[in-house]
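Module 6 notes. Inverse folding takes a fixed backbone as the condition and produces residue identities as the prediction. Think of it as a translation problem where the source language is geometry and the target language is the twenty amino acids. Below is one complete input and output pair. Work through it position by position during the lab.
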C-alpha cells in the first residue's frame, strides 16, 4: 500500500474546529458521489455540503477499488485534506 495525502480545497470554517471523517470500505465501493454524500452528512450544514462536493470530485477521479483507508480532514483554517492508501500492484 502507498500512503498519500493531498489538499483538495478550502472551505469556510468559522468555528475553526478540526473535523475528521473516516469512510468505511463499503461506502468506497459505491464511488465518489456516495463518499462525498457520506462525508457531507457526517460534517453537516453548508460546510458539509462544500466538503462533500470537494471529496466526491476527488474520489471520482480514481478507478474503483484503488483507494483504501480513506479519511477526510477539515483543518481549523478551512483547508480540506484527504489521507488515503492506494493499492499497489502486489496488494
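Target side of the pair, the amino acids:
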Amino acid at each position: 500500500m502507498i500512503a498519500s495525502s493531498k489538499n483538495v480545497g478550502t472551505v469556510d470554517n468559522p468555528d475553526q474546529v478540526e473535523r475528521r471523517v473516516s469512510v468505511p470500505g463499503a461506502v468506497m465501493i459505491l464511488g465518489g458521489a456516495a463518499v462525498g454524500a457520506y462525508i457531507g452528512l457526517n460534517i453537516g450544514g453548508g460546510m458539509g455540503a462544500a466538503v462533500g462536493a470537494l471529496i466526491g470530485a476527488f474520489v471520482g477521479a480514481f478507478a474503483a477499488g484503488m483507494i483504501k483507508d480513506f479519511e477526510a480532514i477539515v483543518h481549523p483554517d478551512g483547508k480540506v485534506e484527504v489521507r488515503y492508501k492506494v493499492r499497489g500492484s502486489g496488494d
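Reference fact for the lab report: The mean pLDDT is 88.
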